[in-house]
Design brief:
Blueprint: H1 2-14, H2 32-44, H3 46-52, H4 61-77, H5 81-94, H6 98-111, H7 114-127, H8 132-144, H9 148-161, H10 166-178, H11 182-193, H12 199-215, H13 219-232, H14 237-249, H15 253-266, H16 271-283, H17 287-300, H18 305-317
Helix pairs in contact: 1-2, 3-4, 4-5, 4-6, 6-7, 6-8, 7-8, 8-9, 8-10, 9-10, 10-11, 10-12, 11-12, 12-13, 12-14, 13-14, 14-15, 15-16, 16-17, 16-18, 17-18
Length: about 325
């Protein structure tokens, strides 16, 4: 039967078409000839293989399973969700590797099937209970569902297995922030910034830490956190906005205006930045500039009650009580 379907592959490939479900009829123990024919077909279908990062079919069951998983991911990227699921099923029959369960879970998460993703990550953990990435990924899925205690346990386990992995600290910090444990969240986000991680991870931690430290009243620590983000990404409008707000609270009004000016130049559609700059102008008794910023903010977001309140505060300071 494998050879019969391989004949169909040849026809499909020659016509420039592909039907993923046919792959499922290949017997894992197919003959040497079938293996060679399949390798030739896969070589012909070069674009998909290039995306998968492979050029030929390897003989070992593990390599075949990984190739099928790569094809499954590519099928998913192409919008062929049913084919992707079938390819993952086949890969797991060939070799039930924990990494394949992880890949399948990641695909399901990307598709929006968070419960299905949790099931796949749980199977990855059952296959290898020391698989830190599976615990982390399941924690992210639980966090997405608002299942905070389950998420925290998974992030705890990921951190215990891989203490230097910054992403797991970031995840646990997000859980603690959601539960109101701001001190704990600050520790986790601070730990992220002490580790070597992806820039996106470090930026996310720095932004969250800056907000939390300001909420806790630790204004200089808040500025320091935002400055770490700015060091990583000097054009980050959120960090500049955040530092500007904290500098306002510190009474550094000129520096606050400078930060908010830069944030607005980088993100001119952010109504909140205009509103916050208006309040700094108000603190400097520059009521005309404050009203101008409030008007610009309202033009961008007329349904934001906070902007109307800000303009009311400025008008009150101008004695325009009506």
């Amino acid at each position: 039967r494998s050879l019969e379907h391989l004949e169909q592959f040849d026809v499909l490939a020659a016509g420039g078409r592909i039907s993923f479900p046919h792959v499922l009829d290949i017997d894992c123990d197919s003959s040497e000839m079938a293996q060679q024919r399949l390798a030739a077909y896969l070589e012909r279908y070069g674009r998909l293989l290039h995306r998968a990062g492979l050029r030929r079919l390897h003989r070992s069951a593990e390599s075949q399973a990984r190739l099928l998983a790569d094809l499954a991911r590519s099928a998913d990227w192409r919008g062929e969700g049913t084919a992707s699921e079938l390819l993952y099923e086949t890969a797991l029959k060939v070799q039930p590797l924990s990494i394949l369960h992880l890949a399948r879970g990641a695909t399901r998460a990307w598709q929006g099937d968070t419960h299905g993703a949790i099931g796949a990550f749980t199977r990855a953990i059952a296959a290898d209970d020391g698989f830190a990435e599976a615990y982390y990924s399941r924690g992210q899925a639980h966090l997405r569902l608002g299942e905070l205690e389950q998420a925290r346990r998974d992030f705890d386990r990921a951190i215990a297995l891989c203490p230097e992995w910054a992403d797991a600290d970031l995840g646990r910090g997000q859980v603690r922030q959601e539960t109101g444990d701001l001190e704990g969240a600050a520790r986790d986000f601070g730990d992220v910034l002490l580790k070597t991680g992806k820039r996106g991870t470090l930026v996310a931690a720095g932004l969250s830490l800056g907000l939390i430290q300001r909420e806790l009243g630790n204004l200089q620590a808040s500025v320091d956190a935002f400055e770490q983000v700015i060091t990583l990404d000097s054009s980050n409008p959120v960090a500049l906005h955040g530092r500007g707000l904290t500098r306002h609270l510190q009474g550094e009004l000129g520096e606050a205006i400078t930060d908010l000016d830069r944030a607005i130049a980088l993100a001119p559609a952010d109504s909140s930045a205009f509103r916050d700059r208006a309040m700094v102008h108000h603190a400097r008794d520059d009521f005309q500039s404050a009203i101008a910023d409030c008007d610009q903010a309202l033009a961008l977001n007329p349904k934001d009650a906070r902007i109307w309140c800000a303009r009311g505060v400025v008008r009150h300071a101008q004695q325009e009580l009506e």
